[in-house]
TrEMBL record:
This is 1-pyrroline-5-carboxylate dehydrogenase. It comes from the Eukaryota. It is an enzyme of class 1 (oxidoreductase). Residues 94-281 form the Aldehyde dehydrogenase domain. InterPro entries: Ald_DH/histidinol_DH, Ald_DH_N, Aldehyde_DH_dom, Proline_metab_enzyme. One of its GO terms (cellular component) is mitochondrial matrix. GO terms for biological process: L-proline catabolic process to L-glutamate. It comes from Coemansia pectinata. Pfam families: Aldedh.
Amino acid sequence: MFRLTHTSAAVAARVGLGARSPTPERSYSDSGIRVPQLATFRLPEIKNEPTRDYVPGSAEQEQLMAAVEELGSKTHHIPLVINGKEVRTGDVQKQLNPGNKAQVLCTYENAGPKEVDAAIEGALAAKSKWEAMPIYDRQAIFLRAADLLATKYRYKIMAASMLGQGKNIWQAEIDAATEAVDFLRFNVKYSAEIYAQQPQLNAPGIWNRVEYRPLEGFVYAVSPFNFTAIGVNLAAAPALMGNTVLWKPSNSAVLSNYVAYDIMREAGVPDGVMQFVPGDAA
């Protein structure tokens, strides 16, 4: 018989001293299906995302320039996203192209107290199911986001950073593409290393275990204008570790941050786990 120490009361109550530990389960909140987790998974090898050269006439340069032209051909509208639903407040602001201030790159909804309160309530409601999801499944979501950013949406997020934040091709490549991808992938690697840090010694009849719990409440991610990758990381890193996040992008980087936010939703981040709320940082 093992005596559980250094573990949560919830786990101890579920396992029961002297009782057989049940199979860890993965729950799907939408369907109610519960699937046993029957293995300890090995992560794929994590490597730095290679940079591309964008030499004149190259395929990558042509694809990037096409993305810049397409993204800059119209004014985009960015909503709030709260609990997976687009929200319009009537308070519409503008993000200008800093290299051509006559160009309105996008308009966006500005969150007020009512919308922020709703986002907080939704994040708190989503937290219990999200933090209960096994780390392997959360890791898979963010590895998928990294792959989407590195391939399908690479040129789109670079174009949004070039037009919206005044970056040249190389600056956008090392920020919005490679650094953002590296944040997503290496965070997964580091999360596995953190979870693996466990007590080396146990007294007879005792199994010491350490849990790495999410923070109480929610995380408020206020991202800057100058690095798209930092916005990605400020939202994704705490979410990976089981936290829910309110993401308040810089008013000068709403478009690129929204592209990144959409990528993470497509990768499988559930509704309510990340709330997108442009507005006053205070």
